[in-house]
Every structure is written in structure tokens, then in C-alpha cells.
Amino acid sequence: MKTKISIQGTDFYINDRITYRGRIHHGRRIEGLLLNSRMVQAIFDDENPETQSHWQYPDTQKWDPDRNTNEFCAALPIYQGFGLMAVTIGLQGGGPIYHPDIYENYRNSAFEWDGSLKSAYFQRLKRILSTADDLGLVVIVNYFYWQQNRHFRDDKAIKNATRLATEWILENGFRNVIVDINNEITKGDHILQSEGIHQLVDIVQNTRLDNIRLLVSTSVHPHNHFPGGIWPKMVDFFLPHGNDSPPNKLRSELRQLKSWDFYSANPRPILINEDSVDIRNLDVAVEEGASWGYYSQGYGSNYKDKKWDWTTQPRECSYEHLSGYQTPPINWGIN
User: Fold this and answer.
1) Closest Cα partner for 183 from 273, 260, 246?
2) Burial per residue of 68-95, b for 16 or more beta-carbon CB atoms within 10 angstroms, e otherwise
3) Is residue 120 classed as helix, strand or coil in its secondary structure?
4) Which of 24, 69, 89, 264 could form a disulfide with 124 if both were Cys (CB 3.0 to 4.6 A apart)?
5) What are the pLDDT digits (tens) for 187-234?
6) Could you read off the pLDDT of 234-274 as tens digits, one per residue?
7) Count of C-beta atoms within a 10 Å radius of residue 316
8) Predicted structure pTM score
9) Count of beta carbons in the 10 Å neighbourhood of residue 226
């Protein structure tokens, strides 16, 4: 394998070389950052035949998970050419279309109900990790997404999934991976919430091969960046999301994080791996010494937030004009 991600202090390193070495943006140092984009559907599939029709490619009138992954891999050199250093891939994806009859019924997960791994998903993941490794890119692998977590049998299955996914990454030799355990934890006592997520962080950190382990954290819901729990003592880096924050609010939240006792006692990288199409937040993040992640949902998703309304027009009718990177089918190019 060619690419190894590591951390020194608050900086990311690739192959023991600080990222963006010598680079300055508007007078601001960007060395040590990991600028990234949310591409969580790159191994997407849907096992529910009643919702599969919503992901048909406009040029073939059918859904093809291998086409989706292959076209994503082909786009990685393009992203790299524009300076991107990392992408986030989801083992359970993210919200594709937020119409209740679709969102509550589609089935996209790389895990069985008992936490065992689905071979087809991990074969697609392997293609992505291998391509990224050859290019010198980092992949942020998100293990769990709340809408799909209800399909696990119990907490034991979630622990099993965490261990098996971590073992798979290590045993396949990938060192260009960092882990986001659960997308946007919220306050609560469940194993996938703020008071329980440390159990899964511990599993990742104590799953080793030849004394090598994966760097791990968990992203936090933008409604509350400080939901409690002991996980902030344990994580290797912090993963706030900026979706709900205009620039001034994001600046305040990042400064609050850096004044947090958990951070000041052990400063670590701050990596936003989901924000929005609002590039002003990229500038704020860089100014505050934090990495930033682009997130573009796409029209036809029935989704809107404080920064962009994706409900103003329907899904595009041609493959060439498909918008966004989270509503399948996806045109992974830059259009």
C-alpha cells in the first residue's frame, strides 16, 4: 500500500509529510489540513425492490451499484487535481431522498442484522480504497447512519459490525483510512449516542494488526456540538458538522471547541466532514485552523436547510445535468 495517514499534534500527515506543505490561502496557513467532500453514496445500493426504481439512471432506466462505484473511482483523480485530499464514504450511506415513503423504507447497509459484513458492499469499498491509495488520497469511512441503524438486532450486533469492519480495513492493508463511527451523534444513552459511543471508539482503537490501528472519531449533530459523554477524551480528532451554521456562528463554535477542556488538555485536529455548498464556511474553517468538508445534496431530494433549498426544482432528466453528490443516481463529475 502507498498511502498512510497520521497525526502530529493538530496536523494531518500523509506518508509522514504534512499535508499541503508550504501552501497558503489568503495569508492563512493550510498546512496540516484535510480538505474533503461528503461522497457517502459511493458504495450505495438498495435491497428493497419497492424503492429501487427511484435510483434509475436516466440514460439506462436501471440502477447499477457497480457503475456508481466505478464512476466515482474514475472521478477521484479529478477531485485530487483541484486540491481535494479526502472523501467521506458511508457503509450505510446517507439520506438520498427525504420523502417519507422512500426515506423510511429504502435499505442501504454494508452490514447484516447481526453485524456481519456484506461481501458486495465491501468489494465496492475495496475498489475505492485501492484507487484512493494509489492516488495518495485519504478516505473517511463512516460506519453508521441513523436511518439504517434500526435494522441491527441489538447493541451486540453494532459492536460486532464495528469490530469486523475495522478488522477488514486493517487486514486488507489500507492505511489511508480514518473512521467516523456514527454520522451525527446526538445526546442520549444509546450505544450510538453521546453517552454510549465511547464503547465503539474503544473497539476501533483496540482492534490492531501488527500493533497498527485506525484513527477514529465520531461526527456530531450540528444542532449541538457538545452533547456530553466521555468520547471527547478518547477520539483522535474532532468531527463537528457545520450544516446549520452561517459563517459567524461556525467561527464561534470552532473557537468554543478549542476552548473546551477536552481540547485544551489534548489539542487534536478539527475536521469538518460535512457542511454545505456555502464556501464562506470553508474560509472560516481555514482561518480557524480546521479542515472543511463540502456537501451537495442534489435536486429531487426533498431536502432543504438554512443554506440551500433543494426542493425548488425536480431531479434533472439527463445524466449529464444530475446535481449533487448524495441523491442517486449521481454524476460524480464536476458539472
Assistant:
1) 273
2) bbbbbbebbeebeeeebbbbbbbbbbbb
3) helix
4) 69
5) 999 999 999 999 999 999 999 999 999 999 999 999 998 999 999 999
6) 999 999 999 989 999 999 999 999 999 999 999 999 999 99
7) 17
8) 0.98
9) 15
CA dist., res. 121 & res. 128, Å (int) = 11
Render pLDDT for 309-318 as a digit per residue (tens, 0 to 9). Answer: 999 999 999 9
Terminal C-alpha separation, the chain: 32
Residues 142-161: pLDDT tens digits? 999 999 999 999 999 999 99
Q: Where are the alpha helices (DSSP H) in the chain?
A: 65-81, 100-103, 119-135, 146-149, 155-171, 198-206, 231-234, 247-259, 261-264, 280-287
On the CB side of 307, how many CA atoms lie within 13 Å of its CA?
Answer: 18
DSSP letters along 260-282, please?
SHHHHTS---BB-----S-THHH
- Let me know: does 13 contact 6? Beta carbons within 8 Å: yes
pLDDT score for 335: 73
Contacts 24+ apart (CB under 8 A), 194-197: 194/227, 194/228, 194/229, 194/231, 195/228, 195/229, 196/229, 197/229, 197/231
**Cell matching residue 38:** 461528503
Q: CA-to-CA distance for 28 and 63, rounded, in angstroms?
A: 44
Q: Phi first, then psi: what are they for 71, rounded to 5°?
A: -70, -30
Q: Which residues of 173-201 are buried (b: 16+ CB within 10 A; e: fewer)?
A: ebbbbbbbbbbbbeeeeebbbbbbbbbbb
* SS3 letters across 37-65: EECCCCCCCCCCCCCHHHHCCCCCCCCCH
Distance CA 178, CA 7 (A): 11
Q: What is the pLDDT of residue 307?
A: 87
**Grid coordinates belonging to 81:** 487535481
Among 45, 39, 62, 42, which Cα is nearest to 319's? 62
Q: Is residue 49 predicted with pLDDT exceeding 80?
A: yes
Q: What are the CA-CA distances from residue 131 to residues 33, 124, 125, 220, 334 (Å)? A: 21, 11, 10, 28, 19
